[in-house]
Specification:
Blueprint: H1 4-19, H2 25-34, H3 40-49, E1 56-57, H4 59-64, E2 76-83, E3 89-99, H5 114-122, E4 128-132, E5 142-147, E6 151-157, H6 162-177, H7 184-201, H8 216-220, H9 223-256
Helix pairs in contact: 1-3, 1-9, 2-3, 2-7, 5-9, 6-7, 7-9
Amino acid sequence: MKDNNELYKIINEAIINLQNKSISFKDFLDVQAKFYKYSTANAILIASQMPKATLIKDSLAWERESIKISKKAKPIYILEPVFDGEKEIMDYHSKEMYDISQTNAKNKKTKYDNRTLLKAFLHNNLAEIKAVDGFDDSNLNASHETVGDNKNIIYIRRGMDYNMIFKSLAFELARLEYTSSYDKEMDNFKVTSIAYILCKIHDLDVSSYSFDELPKTFINNSSIEARKDLVEIKNIVNKINEGIDEYLQRVTINRSRGYSR
């Protein structure tokens, strides 16, 4: 069993390696996308120990499902919060987890077609989405504005293919939720990271994204500040994705009951 100090050291070293590009930033985002419901610290731990992991549970959870863990399996360690009586986090302790690839089970991830995913994006909790014929700026595919009592509207160009629609929506939702700063390079980096994770979560095309060049601010910041940036990115993704996930969960439930939408 690894102790907390060992795990904190792994996290800190991994962040430094992200900053100096010893670890691919895109590869880390891929892991955060697979484990978007996990904390940034735990996504870093998973990426450091088993980057190809897709579904992790502790041994008891696998046992409850009558699934056997390979005898040769090495645990993936994460940090689990310890709560007090008021449900406030008091501390963390290390916890052993195992990926589905270390068991006799098969990962059956639910797939959704483009039409269903588009409906899910339309059901986001942040903005109403309206299609328009075009923009004054011919290079624009989408834009947003806030009207009335803080009502957000995203406008998206008609006639685009699904890949461009999803990419444009992801970027615009990220821009809408992200608070810009004085550092435009960092702003674009964070917005692009948010949009990338959002698309990756839903198995959308991300081939046009590149993270070969990282912002100087991110590279030169302390590992503590860099971690804050990663946490901010992850938290915004979760806020954007909340309504999308809720819609897809309803679709999955209806499918299991034999309904179609």
